[in-house]
Design a protein that fits this description.
Layout (H helix, E strand, L loop, with lengths): L2 H16 L11 E6 L5 H9 L4 E6 L2 H9 L5 E5 H11 L2 E10 L1 E5 L13 E4 L5 H12 L7 E4 L2 H9 L5 E5 L2 H8 L3 E5 H9 L8 E6 H6 L1 H20 L1 H7 L1 H4 L3 H10 L1 E2 L4 H15 L12
Parallel strand pairs: 1-2, 1-3, 6-7, 6-8
Antiparallel strand pairs: 3-10, 4-10, 4-11, 5-8, 5-9
Helix pairs in contact: 1-4, 2-10, 5-8, 7-13, 11-13
Keywords: Coiled coil, Signal
Organism: Salinispira pacifica
Protein name: ABC transporter substrate-binding protein
Length: about 300
């Protein structure tokens, strides 16, 4: 097993002890939590268009949000794939429902570079140990023969962005819209999107599971009849967003407290897709092989 995933599993085991796992109850609504990134826009639209069916909240702390799921405070959690994966491996009580974001961050650097080898002797900041970003960047450095040359450091996205701006970091993998904000300001340079880096590892496939939707096993079974409609609605909303990022950039500029062109740029850099269950299983199997982690198996998708 990938050593970074293994270490992150310790936190998942702790969560298994710390949080109870009752089946959450709602008043006819499905409650959802999603990170306050570009990936949240489809969920914000969903809750706005169908307020009687869905109730949403955003978050910035992924472990805390996982705790809310385990504690029955929310039905569905959109979070990093490896957050749900490690919990499943540790306790077996969580289920993967679907992924909708397969790329939403970029390797940003303090100066323009033509290759990661130019960072030798330096470091790349990633958000936390065991995150999808850390797992993928570790694999990329191994593939390029740079694992012993470039160190991985840890800081949440806003702090890592601040270090870049202050010239105290060589590089950081930043989520949207933070990456586009720094690019627009001239305080950082976009070297490569996470989907482009994954394509180097996979032989051309750009989709690696980044933001995925999870539920407790009992909750997944309870809302299973609504999931097809949920995915269909999200798929149609996402297609509209991809088709007209300028409109949604304007609409959500105030929410993110950023200029509309920055939100638009962030949407254009993200990779949204709803591949369907069979293809999704294949994508996760491919990801597991490339990242050297255990394939979660069919039960991970069964509810």
């Amino acid at each position: 097993m990938n050593k970074n995933i293994a270490s992150f599993m310790l936190a998942a085991v702790f969560s298994a002890v710390l949080f109870a796992s009752p089946s959450p109850e709602t008043d006819g609504q499905i409650s959802m939590a999603y990170p306050k990134t570009i990936s949240s826009i489809p969920f914000l639209e969903l809750a706005e268009r169908h307020p009687g069916d869905y109730e949403g909240r955003d978050f910035t702390d992924h472990p805390q949000a996982l705790g809310q799921l385990l504690n029955g405070e929310i039905d569905l959690l959109a979070s990093g794939f490896t957050v749900g994966y490690t919990r499943y491996q540790a306790a077996g009580d969580i289920r993967y429902l679907f992924g909708h974001v397969w790329g939403i961050s970029s390797i940003m650097t303090s100066s323009e570079i033509s290759g990661l080898e130019e960072l030798s002797g330096g470091s790349i900041y990633v958000p936390f140990e065991g995150s999808p970003i850390e797992v993928q960047i570790s694999a990329l450095l191994e593939e390029l023969g740079l694992a012993d040359e470039i160190e991985l450091s840890y800081a949440p996205f806003p702090q890592a962005a601040g270090l870049l701006v202050q010239g105290k970091a060589d590089a950081a993998v930043l989520v949207e819209p933070i990456a586009s904000k720094l690019e627009a300001s001239g305080n950082a340079f976009r070297f490569q999107t996470i989907q482009d880096s994954y394509a180097l590892l996979s032989g051309g496939e750009m989709r690696s599971p980044q933001v995925s939707v999870f539920a407790l096993e009992a909750t997944a079974a309870r809302v299973s009849d609504e999931l097809e409609q949920l995915q269909d609605r999200l798929s149609r909303i996402t297609a509209e967003i991809v088709e007209d990022p300028a409109y949604y950039g304007n609409k959500y500029a105030e929410y993110f407290e950023l200029p509309a062109p920055v939100i638009q740029r962030g949407l254009q850099q993200a990779l949204f897709d709803f591949p369907g269950e069979e293809e999704e299983v294949e994508l996760i199997q491919l990801y597991s092989r490339i990242m050297n982690i255990e394939d979660p198996g069919a039960e991970f998708h069964t509810y």
